[in-house]
Amino acid sequence: MNRDRFPALREGWARLDGPAGSQVVDSAIEAMADWMRSGSNANHGGQFKQAHETDELVESTRVACATLLGGSPEGVVFGPSFTALTMRFAATVLRSLSAGDEVVCTRLDHDSNVRPWVIAAERAGATVRFAEPVEGTLELPASAVEAVLSERTKWVAVTAASNAIGTVPDLVGIVAAAHAVGARVYVDAVHATPHRRNDLAALGADVIGCSAYKWFGPHVAMLCGRPEIMAEYHPDKLNPSPDESPDRWELGTLPFEALAGVRAAAEYMLDLDFEAVHAHEQSLLDSALAGLGAMDHVTLYGAAAERAPTLMFTVAGHHPTEVAKYLNEREIAVWDGNYYAWELERTLGLAPHGGIRAGFLHYNDASDAERLLSAVADLKPT
Ligand SMILES: Cc1ncc(COP(=O)(O)O)c(C=O)c1O
After folding, report:
1. Are 190 and 199 in contact (CB under 8 A)?
2. Whose CA, among 12, 17, 239, 277, lies 20 to 30 Å from 194?
3. What's the number of domains the chain is made of?
4. CA gap 168, 160 in Å, rounded
5. What is the DSSP string of 31-60?
6. Looking at the predicted structure, is the pLDDT value of residue 1 above 90?
């Protein structure tokens, strides 16, 4: 779908590295160049025309991202990466915890939604409890989180989709269970966002975050929190910088040219027909799973009923890095290792080498899946 909107795809590779970063849509590329050429490039908060244009860029990008994530612009914070934003968020909110308070993380999450909470909890004297995915399917039902919730739980940090195996947890059930004990929920939608709408209001979550470079934009990340939650906390900041939320969460000068790209990518996302995206991605995933599943030298990990089109496998007798290098020779881009799904790699007993990950985005097509299958089939021992 829409392959002609992605100049980088003309190179002809099978780009199955989307979970590590998507290619950039043409309108986002143009928007960034246009912004830098325009003369509007100034700074935030000045008293002249170009500074007002910069203010308008920031505000309209907050609006576009809030619309995409089902929140309100007063709750949208930009930052360099989801990892950096989560470090800052966890360090800030956990300052209000006391010894004996608890935080729930999951073994399915990317480490950027685990370690910041573990580090901050240790400093606060709080305890982190882990929700375990179901053995075999690696699904994360609400019961997995309920098993580690208590009346001391203050925050639950959970992914909207695993970046390793695609599992989509039962977020609605998890949010309901967390709220029932008075805990707040922080959702990592970095992997999920290019595949499905994750609406803060519809989920009832408290904060949701993602990174535009996973959904066809530049390297900028954002949190979209309920405005009253973002306003409640006071992150470390410089004296002269704004003290109102959301601005007080942002450190230093924003990357305005990149925000122009984020706004254009968000507009592209808002125009996408996600039912069609889902149907297309699902057919690619189904054919890849069926093909790899039929190869007895391949082991697939996870079998969630609800999942993003991302799969992880190992090939008997081949180190994951060697497989990735071999696929590189065939112009197929995949990832090897743990892709920072560090807890999951350990849960699966795959440390330290991990596995191989291939992920589809809506711009992939059937020939990408076929190229992967035929290359991996050729690794069969003779
Ligand atoms: C699920 C998930 N969470 C978080 C991250 C980290 O995002 P960032 O690179 O913006 O820190 C990634 C990146 O791969 C991811 O896939």
Report:
1. no
2. 12
3. 2
4. 6
5. HHHHHHHHS----TT-SSHHHHHHHHHHHH
6. no
- The residues pairing with 1 across neighbouring beta strands, listed in sequence order, are none
CATH code: domain of residue 368 = 3.90.1150.10
User: Which of 248, 271, 294 is the last residue before a domain boundary?
Assistant: 271
Question: Which of the listed residues 22, 83, 162 should we mutate to test ligand 1's pocket, taking the one with most ligand atoms within 8 A of CB?
Answer: 83
Are 262 and 300 members of one domain?
no
| Calpha distance 350→181 (Å, rounded) | 35
Mean pLDDT, all residues of the chain = 97
Which two tokens mark 279? 């149907």
The tens digit of pLDDT for each residue in 208-225 reads 999 999 999 999 999 999
What is the atom index within ligand 1 of the atom nearest the CA of 81? Answer: 10
Q: Is position 382 within any domain?
A: no
Which range of residues forms the domain containing residue 198?
27-271
| 247 and 282 assigned to the same domain | no
> Per the domain annotation, does 211 fall within a domain?
yes
Specify whether the CB–CB gap between 227 and 76 falls below 8 A.
no
Could you tell me the distance, in angstroms and rounded to a whole number, from the CA of residue 190 to the centre of ligand 1? 5
Cα 164 to averaged position of ligand 1 atoms, centre (Å): 11
Section 51-67 average pLDDT: 98
Taking the C-alpha atoms of residue 24 and residue 107, their distance in angstroms, rounded to an integer, is: 30
Residue ending a domain, choose from 217, 247, 271: 271
Helices (H), the chain: 26-38, 49-69, 82-93, 115-124, 142-146, 171-180, 200-203, 227-232, 256-271, 274-293, 320-329, 342-347, 366-377
Same domain, 230 and 331: no
Alpha helices, DSSP H only, in 272-378? 274-293, 320-329, 342-347, 366-377
Q: How far apart are the first and last CA of the chain?
A: 37
User: Which atom of ligand 1 is nearest the CA belonging to 221?
Assistant: 10
Q: What is the reported pLDDT for 380?
A: 84
CATH classification of the domain holding 50: 3.40.640.10
